[in-house]
Amino acid sequence: MESEVFAPPAQQARGLLDAGRAADAVTLLRRAITQTPSNAELHAYLSVALEKLHDIDGALAAALQAAALNPSDTGFLARVGLLQLFANRFAEAEVTMGAVLARQSGIAGHHHVMSIVLERQSKWETALFHTAEAIRLEPSDYNRLRHHGILALHADRPAVAEAAFRSAIALRPDVADYYNLLATSLERQNRFDKALAAAREAARLDPASAVFAEKLKELTVRSEAAADIATLIRTVDPVTLKLLPLNFGHLMFSQFGEDGVLWPMLRNVKGGFYVDIGAHHPFRLSNTALLHNYNGWSGINVDADQRYIDEFNRVRPNDVNICCGVGGEPGKATMAIFADGAVNSFDAKEIEKAQANGARTVAEMREMQIRTLADILDTHLPAGKTIDLLNIDAEGWDTSILQSNNWTRYRPALILVEDHTMTLTDVERSASYRLLRSHGYALFSQTAATSFYRPG
Asked: Which residues make beta-bridge pairs with 452?
């Protein structure tokens, strides 16, 4: 007890922190700081103690004071950057960590913090540089390899992601999550057979994981579909392929036969223009695939899942393909990503319904940029181009997307809207119906989940 009494305050505070007595440490340090306010070490310990009590703002203020009192101590400055990150002050943290790295570029931890700061601002490429530096300095850190791979996926660099996940697997071949991520990186490159093999290994290592099981199921279907399409391309000549819709009237891509309703109306309309919001996939459940493949239509495809925008870029390279969310107001929102991307949603009720009805599991919650329909059309619709078909399938946000259009400037010839509230015996209950009627559109057809409108 006598040694504790006469020990310096910083040493006493360290002992209290080691004993889990952060509140007592704060009391001791604040008393000591009133006596020696210029002691940077006391402020630094106070910062640690306040952080343990989850007072991030207080911890940051103490860290800033320590750094101001001893500006040559890079450790104090690095702590400021870390706490700015914790406080969601990302722009400030970026400046601080830049100063830290200017002094000490050879410490992997500094690059790691900087990569997270940049990631939170969606600066994927710069974040990738810093994770690469952290890995170069500490090549055996498999967690940083995983982080590097995830950043590469965000930056749309699946080959870089693949290399990172393979390196992580070489260090930790027993971690199922690394194989699951490897499967995603291979899937983004359309290497479905190898992606399927990685997904099988993830499911083998963790057979209880519903996420891994769903991924395996999805990739099994996609691998088989890719093989079928490859066989079709090898064995059917282009002329026969182009005539398929005419020879076989049942050929459809839509989920509920929507393109079967559209085809008799539009089969003689060549080179039309569509805008597909919530486009999902260039073939699977697509209301525009038939028009694109057989009538030479083109347009704008928007989906918030980068996996499917990659597919559009591959299959419809002449279209404008945009990865973002679309909603009533610009900003950011969190999207639930399922292994079956057809039910991805920003809407809490739709997320809950997808989980309950389909026994699906959310694979990831991801913050996405939200744009309005008017903004997308202002930016990407070619000058003088009219919209022949607007298709909206946004899992609960359909009406708000319609509200975000500039109806004076953009009036599509046909509108398809997913609408689970619509019944032909009570059309007024549908918010989308009421909105479109107010803008001069009339309902003229309905499938199981989609309403068809045109001016009238």
From this structure: 416, 445
Same domain for 64 and 85, yes or no, is yes
Q: Are residues 272 and 350 in the same domain?
A: yes
Using the 8-state DSSP alphabet, how is residue 316 labeled? -
| pLDDT tens sequence across 336-388 | 766 555 556 665 565 565 555 544 555 567 778 889 999 999 999 999 999 99
Q: For 36-77, how does the pLDDT look when each residue is reduced to its tens digit (9 = 90+)?
A: 999 999 999 999 999 999 999 999 999 999 999 999 999 999
Q: Please indicate, yes or no, whether the overall pTM of this predicted structure exceeds 0.70.
A: no
CB of 401 closer than 8 Å to CB of 417:
no
Closest to 209 measured CA to CA, from 305, 356, 339: 339
Q: Residues 209, 139: one domain?
A: no
Q: Which of 175, 203, 235 is the endpoint of a domain?
A: 235
Residues 17 and 128 in one domain: yes
Specify whether the backbone of 354 is left (phi greater than 0), alpha (psi in -120 to 50) or beta.
Answer: alpha
Say if residue 255 is in the same domain as residue 392: yes
Distance, in Å, from the CA atom of 288 to the CA atom of 28, rounded to the nearest integer, reads 69
Q: Give the domain CATH number at 134.
A: 1.25.40.10
pLDDT in tens, 397-422: 889 999 999 999 999 999 999 988 88
Question: How confident is the model at residue 335, as a pLDDT?
Answer: 72
CA angle 194/200/203 to nearest 5° reads 145
Among the listed residues 204, 226, 221, the one whose alpha carbon sits nearest the alpha carbon of residue 213: 204
Q: How far apart are CA 209 and CA 201, in angstroms?
A: 12
Same domain, yes or no: 283 and 230: no
Alpha helices (H) along 87-141: 90-103, 108-119, 124-137
* Structural domain for 279, as ranges: 242-455
- Residue 415's closest CA among 383, 395, 439? 439
3-state secondary structure at position 138? coil
Contact between 52 and 46 (Cβ < 8 Å)? no
Phi, psi (rounded to 5 degrees) for 71: -65, -15
The predicted pLDDT at position 333 comes to 77
Burial bucket for residue 386 (CB in 10 Å: 0-12, 13-18, 19+): exposed
Q: Name the domain count of the chain.
A: 3
Instruction: Decide: residue 6, CB within 10 A, 0-12 exposed, 13-18 middle, 19+ buried.
Output: exposed
Residue type, 254: S
Element (DSSP H or E) covering residue 289: helix 289-295
Strands 298-303 and 320-323: parallel
249, 230: one domain: no
